[in-house]
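Protein: ArsR family transcriptional regulator
Species: Paucilactobacillus oligofermentans DSM 15707 = LMG 22743
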Amino acid sequence: MELDISNDSLPVYKALASDVRLKIIELLSNESINVKELAIRLGLSTTITLRHLQILADAGIITFKKEGHSKISKVKIDLISIRFPQKIYSPFELHESAIPVGQYTDYSVQPTCGLAGRKDFIGKVDSPSFFMDPDRFKAQMLWFSKGFVEYQAPNFLTNEDNLEMLDLSAELGSEFPFSNNVWPSDITCYINGKELCTWTSPGDFSDIRGKYTPSWVPDNVNQYGILKTFRVTKDGTYLDGQPVSDITLDDINITTPSIKIRFAIKDKAKNQGGCTIYGHGFGNYDQDIKLSLYYS
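Structure follows.
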């Protein structure tokens, strides 16, 4: 589950702001427990225990199921991350490009794979041939198990401009038939053919619906990813603000009319769990792939 600092995330924060509910999560993380047994372990009445459980359920942290005459509680997530707004404190000028998910210029993918738009799937699912369907430009989400997709963004820098920093952001996740919240995948990012770094996605999420995912998408398939920001500076490459490699701006040769961006699952990757890319109208972030060039 991924949170931000908007009011939409308040139910989760409120649910966690209780030592009793934290203890409930700790107990349920080890086993599923019926309400009566949980109340005994907590030293509380069944009524009060149910009240705490309902708050956790309303926040999407736990779920209930019936076993005979008993109501069983269990934790439905194993990770909560919080994304804070980023602000660039710099006097740099900015060229920014938004690249639709379906506007790739090269690809090589293997099933499971497919494309989805605002109203339906585009072409046949699990058929790589449809990645050349003319309607692919309407895709706002795509997925593949192995291979890569490559995009090109315009380079509007002139000879007089001095590139100071490059940011690439995209909402990414793993790929599993339907979904699997625990399905690690090593997704590698390249700029102009230069490998920046590899990020391991923890899963292919459907524990809750994506904030912007269209209603036609079933609940049990990919719903959202995690917004990742790859930053290249004159000193190295960073992923979400943390240093990850020694690749610098000098290494990626930003002198061509266009800038190539590639997301890939390597053949020899330890975790070959596929890749899903979410764009405008899908997932938790209403954005396409975004390339930002900061210059002086």
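Remarks: Helices lie at 10-16, 19-30, 35-42, 46-58, 249-252.
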